Amino acid sequence: MSKMIYYRTQNIDGLWAKVEEREFDIKKFIHRSKFDLIKNRFYEKNIELIIGPRQSGKTTIMFMLIFNLLQHHNIKSDQIFYISLDSIFYLSEFENPMFFLRKLKDFYSKEKRIFLFIDEIQRLKNPGKFLKGIYDLDKNIKIFVTGSSSLEIKAKIKEFLTGRKKESLILPISFKEYLDDEKAIKNLKQFENLSIKSLQYWLENENLYGKYLSNRMNEFAILGSYPAILNQNKNEKKKEELWEIYNSYIKKDIVDFMNIAKVNIYNNLVKTLSSQIGNLINKSEISSLIGSNMLTISKYINILQETYVIYQLPPYVSNRRNEIKSTHKCYFLDNGIRNLSINQFSKINDRADKGALLENIVFNEFMKNKTLDEEIYFWRTKAGAEMDFVLQKDNEIIPVELKAGTAKNKTLSKSFYAFLNHFKPRKAIFLNRDYFGIKVIDKTNVFFIPIHWFLLFGTKIVC
User: Fold this and answer.
1) What gap in Å lies between CA 133 and CA 127, rounded to an integer?
2) Rounded to whole angstroms, how far apart are CA atoms 172 and 166?
3) Are 296 and 314 in contact (CB under 8 A)?
4) Bridging pattern class, strands 47-51 and 396-402
5) How far apart are the first and last CA of the chain?
6) Distance (Å, whole) CA 28 – CA 24
7) If we measure between CA atoms, which residue out of 156, 157, 178, 177 comes closest to residue 167?
8) Domains, the chain, ordered by start
């Protein structure tokens, strides 16, 4: 059931002169795990910095927060102020925090706590100084801001907000968030860690839900998980939404906002990186391939990372001389964007890049669900031994290898054994199409897990 939410905003008569009403049906939106973390800090002083790519759900989270304040915290509409800087052409009112606060005080009682929401804060010339000024001048204002460029946020904001902010990264919807919303596996038995004792429990779950989870995983692998895509029922509509995101964000907003001069080089770089997901980034080779130089390629790759299009995964490095120590691997932060850039939407089982797509989606879920004390790497030696991912938490490492086919014979690669021999981890994970199992190698428990279950639960299955 829809309800109206109210807040003050901008109109032609000036800042905060309008009380806007918006119809909002919270049941239409997929619940985001970061929303709970943010709303639990409503009465903490820190600034909430909500970052991530365009159209990943940051603004929706803001309106969900406003809805929650009105419905569950007895906050009145005259205590809530929202503005999108995308819709403001003259930003002079945001340059001086004292002037800005005076404008606010025309519309609220100082005794009441104020909740201030600002969308796309990086549009300001000096957003860090502006937010710090408001924070320091008035202790009874709770500030929420969004940003779509970590490059701009790092340069303009973070140094001013040390000790004053909580940061939340909002990427496209996670596999677990989507499945929790569908409620198709709500009858799943009480969760148990994978062990010899619980193996039958997981085999039963695979028989019940494996096909459903695999189908959903394949959809994520081809069309990605931006909210606008998941809200559509037909594939053609999903592709139309993808084209809109790609054209408006990657081909226009990033180009304009980051002042990209060599647009053809930039567009060709996106396509080239799309064809190399999961591979080492060879900037010299890419430069030659698209007719540019390493300085430009490095700059544009950095921009793509800082605007949440790609991620450069660093290598896991110990003290061994034969390890790759500086070259990174490339992943896209959404499979749909990656597939659109090469205009390839055929079914996953018909594709030569099936393994790379599944590897990319596993990486995406790592990024969406990782905690502050977790890090993700890959491992490779100069001789060619490699491990797809290395997860590190509390000084413990868990290697993760992925195979698109089944692993019922429990066969492991030479690279897998090489990693176990070098580092002797307590746990290791082998992701595969459909098999649950456990194999003990020396002091390492190797867990065989279907990829779709790992997307849903991550390392929680083995921890």
Assistant:
1) 10
2) 20
3) no
4) unpaired
5) 40
6) 9
7) 157
8) 3-170 (3.40.50.300), 176-461 (no CATH)
Strands 374-380 and 396-402: unpaired
The two three-digit tokens of residue 453, written as one number: 């279950």
Backbone φ and ψ of 422, nearest 5°:
-70, -45
Is 366:329 a contact under the CB 8 Å cutoff? Answer: no
Phi, psi of 288 (to 5 degrees): -65, -40
Q: Is 289 left (phi over 0), alpha (psi -120 to 50) or beta?
A: alpha
Torsion of CA 131, 135, 141, 147, to 10 degrees: 30
pLDDT per residue as tens, the chain (463 positions): 578 898 988 876 677 878 888 988 888 899 999 999 999 999 999 999 999 999 999 999 999 999 999 999 999 998 999 999 888 777 888 888 998 888 888 887 777 899 999 998 888 888 888 999 999 998 889 999 998 866 667 667 767 888 888 999 999 999 999 999 998 887 666 678 999 999 999 999 999 999 999 999 999 999 999 999 999 999 999 999 999 999 999 998 889 888 899 999 999 999 999 999 999 999 999 999 999 999 999 999 999 999 999 999 999 988 766 667 789 999 999 999 999 999 999 999 999 999 999 999 999 999 999 988 899 999 999 888 999 999 999 889 999 999 999 999 999 999 999 999 999 999 999 999 999 999 999 999 999 999 999 999 999 999 8
- Strands of the sheet with 47-51, listed across from one edge: 14-24, 3-11, 80-84, 114-119, 141-147, 47-51, 165-169
Distance CA 173, CA 230 (A): 9
Distance CA 338, CA 344 (A): 9
Considering only the C-alpha atoms of the chain, give the largest distance between any 2 of them, rounded to a whole number of Å. 74
Q: Shortest CA distance to 444 belongs to which of 423, 425, 419?
A: 425
Quick one: CA torsion of 347, 351, 357, 358, rounded to 10 degrees?
Answer: 80
C-alpha count within 13 angstroms, C-beta hemisphere, residue 425: 22
